[in-house]
Amino acid sequence: MSGKELIKTLKLEKVGERAFCGRNFDIGTKAIFGGHVLAQSIIAAYKTVPEGRFIHSLHSYFILPGDPSEDIIYRLDDIRDGGSFSTRRVLAEQKGKTIFIMAASFQKEEKGYDHQSTMPGVPRPDTLKSFDELKKNLLGLLPKPAKRLLEVEFPFEFKPVDLSNPMLPGKHDPERKIWIRFREGNDIDRETCEALLAYVSDYNLLATAILPHERATFSNTIIATIDHAMWFHRPFDIGDWILYDVLSPNAISARGFATGQLFDRNGKLVGSIAQEGLIRPVT
Q1: Is the pLDDT of residue 143 over 60?
Q2: Is 217 domain-assigned?
């Protein structure tokens, strides 16, 4: 899916009172990509929030695998509009069943205290190879399902800082640092930038959780997001490079847990992520 096609899927159609329809694209997975539902849910919620309030956090659960061939209906509940904050609940449905739920909070901009973590010292993106180049050497080594994932066009460009790859066997520390940017990044409004960051935030988290397990790869592990939480700290440009610093501190009972921090190229912390998901070995 190209960046322009992804932007089109974020233009939801109103289909009822507090209800919107979003369409899908095939990205090489059997189920809908979780980041796609996250992004559309944010856009749906924004359609009901007072002007001048911006998302600062979301908490979500993936209930059922979504069907990529079916549109998604998003139903909104206005939980509360206070003096500074608005809270919304989003239910995503297909064929009459809820596949995803999200609670999100929006705030008007205010002045206050300001501090943040320091961005890790890593090579700048212009000194690194793009994954577009690196994946050419992988295609001949992968089974057909994993190969198909790489053959589909990505709307984002990735530049990994290290070359540990969850598609190939190997034992690595459970951490990854990757530069990312949206390929069609000109003149995108703040709400869409936030939705696109949520979209790409679903990449690399559970992939990092399988890195310490020598035989685990995408081909022999069932990988699926269970829940996803995200905090938006500062405005950013999704068309410029953002460093995704990912760490997986735990895996147990066929679940992997991962956290991430997102820094713009100037070192500003623009977002934080936490996710737990299924990483079940195929026996």
Answers
A1: no
A2: yes
- Known catalytic membership, residue 225: yes
- Which among 94, 217, 221, 275 is annotated as catalytic? 275
Place of tokens 């690194």: 128
Whether 67 is catalytic:
no
Model-wide pTM > 0.90: yes
Q: Is 202 a catalytic residue?
A: yes
What's the 3-state SS for 221-234? Answer: EEEEEEEEEEEECC
Q: Rounded distance, CA 152 to CA 148, Å?
A: 7
pLDDT band at 101 (very low <50, low <70, confident <90, very high): very high
pLDDT band, residue 114 (cuts 50/70/90): very high
Catalytic residue chosen out of the listed positions 40, 202, 221, 261: 202
Count: domains in the chain? 1
Q: Which of 225, 245, 261, 264 is catalytic?
A: 225
Q: Whole domain around residue 82: which residue ranges?
A: 3-109+129-281
